[in-house]
Automatic annotation (TrEMBL), chains A, B:
Described function: Catalyzes the hydroxylation of L-kynurenine (L-Kyn) to form 3-hydroxy-L-kynurenine (L-3OHKyn). Required for synthesis of quinolinic acid.
Reaction catalysed by this enzyme: L-kynurenine + NADPH + O2 + H(+) = 3-hydroxy-L-kynurenine + NADP(+) + H2O
Pfam family for this entry, one: FAD_binding_3
Domain FAD-binding: 6-355
Organism: Lacinutrix neustonica
Protein name listed in UniProt: Kynurenine 3-monooxygenase
GO molecular function: FAD binding; kynurenine 3-monooxygenase activity
A GO BP annotation: kynurenine metabolic process
Gene that encodes it: kmo
Pathway: Cofactor biosynthesis; NAD(+) biosynthesis; quinolinate from L-kynurenine: step 1/3
Amino acid sequence: MKKQQNILIIGAGLCGSLLALRLGQRGYNVAVYEMRPDLRKTDISAGRSINLAFSDRGNKAMKLVGLEAQVNALCIPMNGRMIHDKEGHTFLSNYSGRDQEYINSISRGGLNALLLDEAEKHANVTIHFNKKCKSVDFEKTTAFFQDYTTKEEFIEDADCIIATDGAGSALRKSYYLGKKFLFSFSQNYLTHGYKELSILPTETGDYKAYKNALHIWPRGDFMVIALPNLDGSFTVTLFLSYDEGAYNFNNLTTPEMVTEFFEKEFPDALALMPNLVADFFENPTAPLGTVKCSPWHYKGNTLLMGDSAHAIVPFYGQGMNASFEDVVEFDAVLDQQLEDWEATFTAYEKTRKKDTDAIADLAIDNFHEMKAHTANPIFQEKRKLEMAFEKAFPKDYSSKYSLVTFNEHIGYREAMLRGRAQDKAILNMLADHEIDTTHLDDKTHLKALLDKVKTATNNILDDDNVAKTIG
Amino acid sequence: MKKQQNILIIGAGLCGSLLALRLGQRGYNVAVYEMRPDLRKTDISAGRSINLAFSDRGNKAMKLVGLEAQVNALCIPMNGRMIHDKEGHTFLSNYSGRDQEYINSISRGGLNALLLDEAEKHANVTIHFNKKCKSVDFEKTTAFFQDYTTKEEFIEDADCIIATDGAGSALRKSYYLGKKFLFSFSQNYLTHGYKELSILPTETGDYKAYKNALHIWPRGDFMVIALPNLDGSFTVTLFLSYDEGAYNFNNLTTPEMVTEFFEKEFPDALALMPNLVADFFENPTAPLGTVKCSPWHYKGNTLLMGDSAHAIVPFYGQGMNASFEDVVEFDAVLDQQLEDWEATFTAYEKTRKKDTDAIADLAIDNFHEMKAHTANPIFQEKRKLEMAFEKAFPKDYSSKYSLVTFNEHIGYREAMLRGRAQDKAILNMLADHEIDTTHLDDKTHLKALLDKVKTATNNILDDDNVAKTIG
């Protein structure tokens, strides 16, 4: 392919700005159109910036574009989950038994601004704000835009168009409504929605709760979580059913009911949130949806990437990381120098889709794990055992969480299959009292348990494989 | 609820005409609007009528409306799969070890005509043909129609609207495009499409192949099947990839290539099909899609039923049976006399959706089973063992196929979970040489094998359950 091809990117969010930067580094002519104003010039109130979990797969992309150190400066390490019970007791459950493995809380806005700054340093990259894409003519490789300010409508063409315009993608909508090819598509909503709240810093700017953890208040059918921000605040999120249970988004309609709900279920969180009622009624309630589709591309003309191709629920902290990994995978396909864009897009989807399908399913698993299983004694015993394995035999074992989050050299699908099999093996052995977890400091005993888990895991994988290939 | 409520049904296909009949029997005022002309008055060429598999779940509905004997007269029993290999060797694999368990080939048109006749015998049921539903205002409970002949447009209202308008449902489209509530929705296409062909009767009107079987030519990545019609013909269907493999729908563009493909892969079928090339180029190639969605209803105003709620691929022969079972399940909810339509629709979806989700997944499983696994020696050994179990211990064992097809007292979901676990248990024991199938006529030995399979099955179900509820 000729290097000086013109690439149009729709959307300058995290995925689009990273893609623009990388394609700019590779020498393409890149034009990015973003519907929102430039977030670097818009007043975003401090302390309420939305934060995200940033981990190894995302960092792999930062290494690729040479921004690892700059991004690291924006990160707050979270070493584990801080579980809060109803009585306010807390319990730290590490994400890994290896000290160097942790996830980070990072500001979406700060990271996006950095990526935009870096992309714009390339003369061959231009970014246009306030330009909303209304539709894409994927047969003509043109996109139809409207300027937010002037309302002027215009059409842009390119050698190829890549849509990184998120869960509500205009290109995906054009694929669906166009009916020009068989387009498999799903949008699936959880019964729960979410609402953002906040724990503000102390008057001296300190954190009101332990800084280096992802806080969880698991209550079975619903939960609250909190992630730290650099300014001393925490962004808090309530995940709750719209219409089921004693308290739900539909019936929490008065300040008294909201306060009563938090007094009963989250008293220690409420004590940190004098601003609860104001936050609750000011902030919107948003749905939690998963989007999958296929094909992602139309010939060599257009391609979906990031959330536009695979929006997922937030419970594995992998949404941004998966989108960043998209760019790494796409970059690796570009390295193959295939004959044209169609071959490139086809190869990219073939290698990538199985993994984004897997992280979508894993994220839903983790919804149930976080709100319910983290409070289950057998689940906690499993985590204790896994932490011991990872600590004593760091090269021989990785939990499902570690495989997904810290093993960026394997894909999500492989992590899912092996991780689920391990969980199944350990949980069943614990439920059947086939594992004695009382002497995990005895390394010989622990090694025997590890061998037992590995054997059971491999049997599960083998049995599943036989059933799948013959059954 | 008042009995004299007005119910509007969109679509007079198999599900809509059965629903109209049943609701007519229950005393409701029923108005049915169908976009096609009256199939009883339209000339349908004999010998090419599309046939379907009719089995116990569908028959349960016929019993409910008192039509069991009349439908039975339209049926051709198929006792098993007749497997054809490339050399033309055939092998009959029964559907069950119990003689009274078989499926039937039935004409779609004949059955639909019967249901329309019976529905129209009720003075409180009216059926309007050539009226195409364009959209539904589910907040106002009105449907918007266009007359095919006069092009006149009109609106009808009712106390509630039930859409039985198939995979391309106008009501479902209105739910999706309306964006008035969170609508989970998926449409997923297989990589394969299908094309109908035919084996015509002999000059004396006889069947050119064994009448009482579903014929399969499994070739791994593609297949041909044939079902008998009452007039001595077979309706033949080719399932083939659109674009993968040496031969596919995209590259079979000349009579020579089509003939070459059949000569190479299906020589014994070709010998029965002098009309192959004409059929191939006259008949359309159609996609194979699965549709799932939720919720099925909007308040008490509107409800999706049959394919409009859950279109499935044809490989389990359960599409019509599932839609008929919808009517049985809906009828049972009506018997509960809940307070209003909203409570009725909510209860119906809650009990029914898990089962239609399951048959959708089972139907895709069976695509792979039919085109590939039926030719696998271990799979064939499993079937041999299961036939022996069902014959020797008819009350103690049912294969997955039997659970799905002949055990209409349990739901599809239960059939799927138990059936998949059994398959996994048996296939793994066969693959690991833990089962000796050489002396299946020894009843003591066979009973020991059955116990072994049951224990392994229960272990699988228990392990899955632990992993699901804690993991």
